[in-house]
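Protein Entry — a single chain follows
Next Lines — sequence and tokenised fold
***
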Amino acid sequence: MLTLAEIEALRHARHGDPFSVLGAHEDASGQRWLRCFQPGARAALAVDADNGQPLSVLTQLHPDGVFEGMLGSTAGAWRLQFTWPDGSTSTVDDPYRFPPVLGELDVWLLAEGTHLRPYETLGAQIRTMEGVSGASFAVWAPNASRVSLVGDFNHWDGRVHPMRLRRECGVWEIFLPGIAEGARYKYEIRTADGHVLPQKADPYALQSELRPATASVVSHMPRLAPASAQRQQSNALDAPVSIYEVHLGSWRRKPEEGDRWLTWDELADTLVPYAQDMGFTHLELMPVSEHPFDGSWGYQPIGLYAPTSRFGTPGDFRHFVETAHAAGLGVILDWVPAHFPTDAHGLGRFDGTALYEYADPREGFHNDWKTLIFNYGRTEVRNYLVGNALYWLERYGVDGLRVDAVASMLYRDYSRKPGEWVPNAYGGRENLEAIDFLRRMNRVVGVERPGAVTLAEESTSFPGVTRPPEDGGLGFHYKWNMGWMNDTLAYAGTDPVHRKHHHQQITFGLMYAHSENFVLPLSHDEVVHGKGSMLGRMPGDEWQKYAGLRNLYGYLWAYPGKKLLFMGGEFAQGAEWNADRSLDWHLLEHASHQGVRRLVRDLNNVYRHFPALYELDTERAGFEWIVHDDWQQSVFAFVRKARDGSFVVAVCNFTPLPRHAYKLGVPAAGAYREAINTDGAVYGGSGVGNGVVQSSPVPWHGKDHSIVISVPPLATVMWVLA
């Protein structure tokens, strides 16, 4: 018989080992007893699971719904029939008759922190056990005294479904029959000192409710996305990579329907063909993991495994990715393993202790963002994050992950004053655990999904970001070139009359341009927080602003490194980006904005057509200066080269004065034509051009041949052999 203490522990949801008392158990004499607890039930009957015949009338031990009765030794699987105060009945499979959810190998790997795909075991998994359909639930909370599954299937009552603790790995688990896709759930956790926490969302939830609701949602595991040789080649270092960065909630909206967001299906029908027509090779989506606060733009996620429900279901997102791939576009996700918000339903003090975060706020709290920092020293936390990277790549088939805020991960003193940070074991400022995590993540991605890429948003001079881990690097494929971005935008924002005094802001970048595999980012960060739009950052009158922007883009597309442009930049959005409303698409009614968009489309097409502009991006052999010292006229010229010896000559004029009769040394004799001229009248420029120009055997700029050209004002011209 159940003891009074056990009954009280069940009634008050304090029992830490419910499977030891609920379900079927033998007493010392060998007699089988069946026990259950169903709050509110007035009677309970055990029936045969196969034929529904009565097996045992259970005795009520407590009016709250505690029942017990003898079960014959020959009885097989059973179900429980409850009678309610109104006389109605319901019959359910007893969740406490099912065996453990986690296999021994899973337990071992989870405890060791080497389970490559923990998401296939933890969280909610729709499955069948012993012929019964339902869902298993498993959550890591090693310091909890009791964990219960709550949801709309049990009136969010933590007494109904307390879970089994697998002490070997600190995971609580249960299989709940009858649970299907769409069921909402959370975990109710009692801490070691008996305090009941606010109900927690599932860290491994595959779907979540739309904010402000915060429940997790049972969802089918996405099927594996097959690896593609074509996608692997499109992501390679020697491939053309031109990225269109998008915030999905403000790219376009439906003003006629309450200014709502577009759905995944609508984005597949509009964003994908738009980016394809513009000639981009990849879409980069600002974070799509579930997040509670719109104003974070997704950079404060709570549901790392759940595509945000703002735009539809996980299946809709998978369709979006497949549509992009069918159109020849890669998909890169912004991924945030650096920190997470403090919302009560999230990861913070998940089981009453600092489980996912560092306990010491000098390590675990980010003062700038008021967020918590992952504890990279815990094997389970590293496993959670590495598994998440693999999840997006394998289950949704995305091409890559752009890792946010890497600098904040690498340094323990990031944005901290002296005395506000804890040195590493050797007294240094580097976060050795985070470095180890990043290397492991990149190594796992490289082995398990070799066609995928990772990109680091890293703003310091930390060495070897894109070198392999075995060579002491972090293992990223690409690094955002923040130094180039800052210098270039500072130069482009300087009045042209003063640019000759800032000549080094253009030339300095080539001192380190091949030290890493770089992406050249003109991202969302450059058009917010009072910085204005790209167009607004250009000096001068209206004509000079548009010409300066076109020149900036021409220079970007000619420079060694992969390209990234934030949405709106391609048509010269006039206002600073506002995440709460659509881009100003009506501006395309004006020729000046149409011209910029046409230029970006043509730049992408020229870029993809000439291998010299991308094939040797990461090698010094792919670049050579022709003119780097014409500071008085703010003119630059350089050669981009391909493996087969073909080349493109780029000439940039950063003043509003045309430079006529400009003699330029060229790599080879022949007739030269303009592949693209950002001053073309079709783009809104002044139309200063050259047609076909024949070289002469006149040495100049260290070359045996030269051409004499007109260099347009505030323009970049790319020359190729005719």
Observations:
- The chain has a mean pLDDT of 96.
- The first strand starts at residue 23 and ends at 26.
- The two ends are 95 Å apart (CA to CA).
